[in-house]
Protein: Orotate phosphoribosyltransferase
Amino acid sequence: MEFVKEFATFLHQNGIIKFGEFTLASGKKSSYYVDLRLVPSYPHEFRKMVKYLENDIAQNIGLDEFDSIVSVPTGGLVIASALAMETVKPLIYVRSKPKDYGTSKSVEGKIYDGMKVVMIDDVATTGGSVVNAIQSLKEVNITIKDAYVIVDRMEGASEALTELGVKMHSILNILEITESLYEQNLIDQNILEKVKKQISK
Structure:
């Protein structure tokens, strides 16, 4: 797939994916780090990524099959905002914890009973933040069947979402990225093996 190869190379060349020893937000150790918050600093690639996402959603789900786009701050929200502009769809978002002033809502934006949404996030590891968001949405009677991430780290997110009846789609996963970089001689076999080992855990 041409986009995967091109995008993987772009991520690597601009230090958006780094290989080494990292500690993730969850406290887990990782042999690589993906910081997609850097992508909007490259408008051409950012737009290409959002367009690819839009086409994928149109083909897999259909743009008429849902009412709104939903995301979680901060990484996914930038992507979801751009996607909402492209698809001319309303945007809502779920706070990680309800605000402790004003309306004390955890879901921000115009919502109504039985509304159908598609969730957008940047990177999925265990799926924790998306799982919490899905539960918040269900509490206010919002229907969600599909979630999209740009990069799936393949460490349990897909399975966690399946348990909630939500299908997770990804534009690319960490294995596709590292294999593509390895085929282009941009990383060595040692790095590829470390990533594979991390996934299999």
Q: What stands out?
A: The longest helix spans residues 43-60. The first strand starts at residue 17 and ends at 23.
